[in-house]
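User: I'm putting together a teaching handout on how multi-component assemblies are represented. Below are the sequence lines for each component of a complex, exactly as they appear in our records. Could you produce the 3D structure of the whole assembly as structure tokens, so the students can see both representations side by side? Please keep the chain order the same as the input.
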Amino acid sequence: MPQSLSGQTLARTNDFVVKFANVNGSGSASANLLFARSILRMGVPVVTRNIFPSNIQGLPTWYEVRVTEKGWRGARGGVDLMVAMNPQTWDKDVKSIEPGGYLFYDSTKPMPPSKFRDDITVIGVPLTGMCNAAYTDARQRQLFKNIIYVGALAALLDMDADAIERLIGEQFKGKDKLIRPNIEALHMGRDYALENFACPIGLKVRKSDGVGDRIFVDGNNAAALGCVYGGATVAAWYPITPSSSLAEAFQRHCARYRNEPETGKRRHAIIQAEDELASIGIVIGAAWNGARAFTTTSGPGISLMQEFLGLAYFAEIPAVLFDVQRGGPSTGMPTRTQQSDLLACAYASHGDTKHVLLLPEDPREAFEMAADAFDLADRLQTPIFVMLDLDIGMNEWLCRPFAWDDRRRMDRGKVMTAAELEAGRDFGRYLDVDGDGIPYRTYPGTHPTRGSYFTRGTTRDRYARYSEEGPVYVDNMERLARKFETAKRLVPAPVERMAAEPTNAGLLYFGSTGAAMDEALETLAERGIHLDTLRLRAFPFADAVDDFVRRHEVVFVVEQNANAQMRTLLVTECGIDPARLISIRHYDGTPITARFIAGAVAAAIPGTNVVPLRKAVP
Amino acid sequence: MTYLAKPRFHHPKLPTNALGYTRRDYEGAVSTLCAGCGHDSISAAIIQACFELDLPPHRIAKLSGIGCSSKTPTYFLGASHGFNSVHGRMPSVLTGANLANRELVYLGVSGDGDSASIGLGQFAHSIRRGVNMLYIVENNGVYGLTKGQFSATADRGSTSKRGVANHDQPIDLVTMAIMLGASFVARSFSGDKAQLVPLIKAAIRHQGAAFIDCISPCVAFNNHPGSTKSFDFVRAHNEAVNRLDVMVEREPIVADYAPGEVVDVMQHDGTVLRLRKLDAQYHPTDKRAAVAYLQERDAAGEVVTGLLYVDPEATDLHANLDTVATPLNALDDAALVPGQAALDKVNASLR
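Assistant: Of course. Below is the structure of the complete assembly, with chains in the same order as your input.
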């Protein structure tokens, strides 16, 4: 093994970053996932991120695995071991390796020395040559190449070979013919590494108990499961990255859990609509008629749905939308992550509208909030947006296992029944009987002579009769404002955490930023910068948000968009002095990192009244 | 206030149907459309058809888009839930409503602007999905509420009220509907109630996507000599291919027609459509022949009306999706929520 000429080699156990550089469409994804899951099986937490192009075959794709015994949830930045399988990105990939790091590559074709660095350790395995010798079929040569490198890495990193073999067995359960050849390929790589290199290298995986009962799952899958548990029966969607896998996962979950046992018939209806307008139209029609319905989309779809969203808001029809946010505006960065649809969703459609947003921080919370969204939509009779992003939606995250209280029942909100109508209860579709701004509704077909009404986007009076009278309009708008106040008390509350030391500085964050936040706060605390934090979980903001800002002299608002949309929302909705909110924005399409947050906060501190504790102590 | 409630009292001797309802029980609010509007005749035909079919009014859902035609659901079936959605998007809302509860009758009311212009996409896709509905377009070739602009069904060369000739090709919704897979397609004329009422009845009883294109002259903007959607023009060029009688199961079938003049088509639900052929060559179950005939007569300047195509073996969206018999909106927690035990297994598979 050509050692680093500088004599410097990284030596780290259970704390390093491996990055795979592949060509998309080459079948590398499942091998890379196998690698990550094998480490999890050894009890060592990992953070994985898939960086992929908007393309089917031939363009560069990367898969990053951060091995972190401490259980940090975010990306670290930097690469300790690069598995360079893509000649197109070779130079950039080699350059990205940390000094003293390792380069693993396919050495079948000799590379000129100028293509390497002298401060890294180079590990060449003739993967193509081995595959060409062992297999005749072109597809096999390609697929098993990936498994061979997993086998070689397992030896180099001292991974548990049994754990990998067990995973292969589980993965191909039912397709037993595939198990043996995969295990043989694994051995081929492992044996080559053991024979040719001093194994293990400086980077090692050692068994630990850091994973516990946590699960490894992507947010779209989790949210889709949440829809099953939330009682959704109608889904309408139009394919768009990065949200398509949510609808597809819902279909899979329904096939498993949602067929009538006696007949095998479906207790769900999934429509792949002709566009996003039809998707939301179908959702609104179904929800109007008493089914729980949702759509899943991304920014461009939200733009297309605007008119319908105004209808659902104004006619007060429940709807659940998943916005798996990607880089905008326009087509933007379709395979990169951002939190840049906040304002487009919060104020979607023309006229005076306001919508409820839920802000899950990981797949587990995506599951919970997906289920909650259906209760909220029925209770508030309005669209509920679950704001995922590509990072949560399409990457596997290590998170708390799913849990469900079997005593829980769907909250269908205020629905007047045939018996209540029969008993002569007054029904006004837009009549605020309880003072919370939420009126009663009836499902179509409930009662022969009572409770029918006309749903429309035009103004109407409390009994749903068309009217363009000013006072009638104002009366309705005031009730909608009351309803939005009610929503504040029903949405998930923000989560506050006090710093270890008293501080006059706070930090607000939400969504996938949470993955990097713990590590960022620890880094900052080590530098003497202590911050109380509030993780926002919903819009409208609970009173606790306003209160948190007022209790701190300065408050950082960390978000993943360019225009500081959350800060705008806070200033507008809470009437906060903009000078008190310092914006920290990350929007290059990659997930925000702890290094970035800590660096940006530390850089902004001198311009504020926040005194780092260490300096304050005489 | 433009909502006018209709007085509820009526003559004590009004005839009742099998459910004990009078025709008045199928009416709605007073129409605010122009006096003489063809749309009001269609509303009257819908009322008559639902009364004669003995449908419980509250088990009908009426949905529409935006425009004069889309206002009409306020003027019939006052005991039904109605939904005046957004422009050109009634089909998707109706599709969703139908998915939620397969037991109601779905009546989609639209216009030529709503369906052929802004809503052409949704029209097409709801038809090709086979949503079980009656989709009726009240077709006058003109935008009424915005005062007389051409719609996409206006014929080439026909003129606006101000005398401007339309230079765009018209969209023929009937041919489109047949091509898109509608399993019941008819064209009618608001001025021919005798033809329209049975067509509406048959379409409602049809299990699948039923479409009726009903020419409905706009008295305010498109009833002048240069129009091809005027009362005079349609009366002069109307070529009915058949006359329809609809017989639900319990009615005795009385054969009083000469052989060869009558075709009986039995629909899935047992409804018999008895067609008195006015054109001996016309076979409404032959899709390709229907399209060819329509194009031929259209070229000759005729407006072909009647039941143009029917597939009595049609299946609807619910059959295609294989959904349960219970309406989806009636399923409870026990039927929908798998519980913690299932989650334990999911969790185990994700480790």
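A couple of points students might notice: Chain A has four domains: 12-204, 217-399, 418-490, 495-616. The mean pLDDT of chain A is 95.
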